């Protein structure tokens, strides 16, 4: 019987061999598939097993997003103490997706970034939950609060974005209407999805970051770009150079003319460039734009960063002056109409570039990354994005923009004791009678510490909205808040 | 060669290795206590208060078992008890760990109680059964007892249906799974019957093509067992037990008769039965469907007979990866019945591939010690009984572990010594006691002849 017993033993050996092979196949080869299968809830739990890094501002003194240890399967809960005010910057850390800084700096926040490898190994060995690095933003909380409250008090939809023109550090970024990210971060896929879908279906589009994710016709604020090219093109042109300013400009190949705002006259038909910008006359810039031609206008636009998505921490829609068409179209886009589509962030860069002597700094939101042990892992160094205009042209433009605030359309942006430069815009678009209202500017004009762009979406401000009345006062409050926070 | 040299090198004899056994037992207990501590540290960073109670409780039990073994079966295989202690202890720890997640039905206290009772049964078997060959005289009694136990759950009022399988009986406040005891009785019956009949089974018969067909009346028991397995399968929806019994019987038949043709007939009969059952019964067909395509979303979502539980087990294994999450760090609660049929996958998540290989290795070693006992045994009945008991253990591990890892279609069975459940634990401790008893007999040196008879004396074991 020993022979058959030995063969039976072989059969047992074979059975255990098969079991072991199969277990190895599952545990080593198939493991990755099973681990990442969407039906495997562990991946979901794992999202909450990390002591996620905090998001702060003001060198860590203000907490924008924090993690609370609540224990259980969903151990670390994400909270946004001032969620609505910062929603479009921070984004959210939802069960199945993330957005904003939570997405952009996700690898630092959840500790999976290679820089945190050593730290993660220590946590693993000491059986501590993995801890992420915290992210400190360049936002100035006091100014953000002022911007948010002012825009909210006005009851309008729109965006306010401000940055330090000399560094590119974004100081304020507000978009309204907003939402509360705390409702989307609940650790329950169904509840979170329901909250998200409700926001997504909202006609007011609260999820949209109006400062970066959508383009709008910039209206007269774009005259700054046109003026920049006028000055660049001919160095002999000064603010006092006289330009033609008819009441209505004949557009080639069309029967309609291009009037000034409200059909008004602009001086005596022949005005200085300074006066044209102060009053925001349409006809001189439309005429000069046509004379410059498509190529020069496009080239100048590109020097401010248009035509390409601006490199930024958050997703940015591409701003562009549109495709080449007949000359009449060039006249319209020279005053910020037609296919001219800009994000508020892009128009901010126009103001900031002029304020910074023609040099456009690359905008950024992340000040520094601080490891769980308090050491700085990364710190953003200011970087030049483009050279938009020469320092001479920038000086001339600045001079004219100061006049706009002192004696032109933007007097409501004045700050006592501080010289402010700016340009308003009131952009009609399509058949919608209600215009968008814009303001771009910077202060103090001589050594600017803040550049700002205020954008009020059409319709929300009524049909009589103008950049000067609607947008400029908000810009003034925000610039003042930034300057006072220093 | 001098006479003196021969005197200091006597005939090689089996060592008792009692000291080694005690050391290994202590090691097994230490591993289990370490695992307890690890669960506590993993769950809330503290060593659990129950560690000493459970650890020392298990330790005391095993020392008692060791003392009984040392007294009543001193020549027994030294590895069996420590190996079983280790796997029983790991099972306790995992059930304790699952109990902490609040999954209903997992109770470490109950399992420790049943372990204690298991050790009592182990000791009682060793004490009462001085010579296992006494069982040979009970062949037919055991056969009837076994069949009776198997049918018991079908009796109205006594039988209970839990989770879709009618394999339980209620006695007092307890539920008992009689099939676990039936399996022991039937192996004893098979061993006794086959030893008595093996010659007629093997020799008489006709040759058809290349297969030796036995006489119909000798084939009777095979057919009866086959029919019975199918009946159990149909009436109790217990695929696992019927597969277990039938496979064991075929292998014991082969060991006894040396006829490959019998294995062939058995396999053909089984396949026929399985295909027939698959055609006739939805729940059997469902198992095949799930086996072939467990990841299908439709099967995953199916409420009855779907792949949800299987996939949860595989997700757990995959999430454990090679080293596992560590005890107390996984999510066994996600696997339905993780403390019972699926305890192996729950272990896989927290102990990883490494831990599972170790567990399989321990099972394989237990089986190996049993088979070694069978080969060393001196009489056919002992050989067949030890071989059968070892095989049924290996076969059970293969069926359930293979099932939850989707190596073979899933049929429910308990994982020996690990799954929560009193009946299985008691029955398996008795099984180990029988192996220990037989290994004691096999390893015990025959009565020593008087050494003075001369130097040419040779011992043949």
Task: Tell me about this structure.
The complex is a heterodimer of chains A (486) and B (461). Chain A has a domain at 219-365 and 381-485: Beta-lactamase. Chain A starts with a helix and ends with a helix. Chain A is elongated. Chain A is of the alpha+beta class. Chain A has helices at 2-29, 31-36, 41-47, 83-90, 101-104, 106-109, 117-125, 141-154, 189-201, 223-233, 273-279, 283-292, 294-303, 327-334, 344-355, 391-407, 467-485, and strands spanning 55-57, 62-69, 76-79, 92-93, 98-99, 134-137, 158-163, 170-176, 242-244, 248-250, 257-259, 270-272, 359-361, 366-370, 376-379, 384-387, 421-429, 432-443, 450-456. Chain A has 17 helices and 19 strands. The longest helix of chain A is centred in the first third of the chain and has 28 residues, at 2-29. Chain B has 461 residues and is mainly α. Chain B is 67% helix and 4% strand. Chain B has 16 helices and five strands. In chain B, a hairpin with a 2-residue loop joins strand 1 (159-162) and strand 2. In chain B, helix 2 packs parallel to helix 4 (80-100), helix 4 runs antiparallel to helix 5 and helix 8 (216-236) packs antiparallel against helix 9. The A-B interface holds A 1-9, 11-13, 15-16, 18-20, 22-24, 26-28, 30-35, 37, 39-42, 45, 73, 127 and B 41-42, 45, 251, 254-256, 258, 295, 300, 311, 314-322, 326, 330-331, 334, 348, 352-353, 356-357, 360, 363-364, 367-368, 371, 374-375, 380, 383-384, 387, 390-391, 394-395, 397-398, 401-402, 405-407.
